[in-house]
Amino acid sequence: MSKVIDAVDVICQHKYNGEIIPIRFRLMNEDGEYENYTIKGYRNISHPGPYTTPDNLYVSSSTYIFECIVVVLNSKKRVRLYFETRNCKWRIAI
After folding, report:
1. How many CA atoms lie within 13 A of 88 on its CB side?
2. Does residue 69 sit in helix, strand or coil?
């Protein structure tokens, strides 16, 4: 199971048709310093209707889910970003 973090800052692009494109995010590390990550690739893996994700999060049809590729220490990593439209809250599963 993945670790889910609620405290994530995300920079994204909102297109005219309602599409959201995640661009960058930042997390606070154990030392209290922010680490910034640029998203190299993403895909929207949202599904209609409520269900529980592989990260053990219960989501509804108003939640966007993005599977993203980031580079960490010269290695590509996959993370999932969750955006809840009801309260404009981002979460990340790493």
Report:
1. 5
2. strand
Report the alpha-carbon distance of residue 63 to residue 6 in Å, rounded. Answer: 14
**How far apart (Å, rounded) are the C-alpha atoms in residues 75 and 18?**
32
Q: Is the dihedral of CA 45, 48, 50, 51 positive or negative?
A: negative
- 48, 92 contact by CB (below 8 A): no
The two tokens of residue 61 are 């049809």
Q: Which residues pair with 52 in a beta bridge?
A: 58
pLDDT tens track for 77-89: 999 999 999 999 9
pTM of the model: 0.92
| Lookup: tokens for 47 | 């599904």
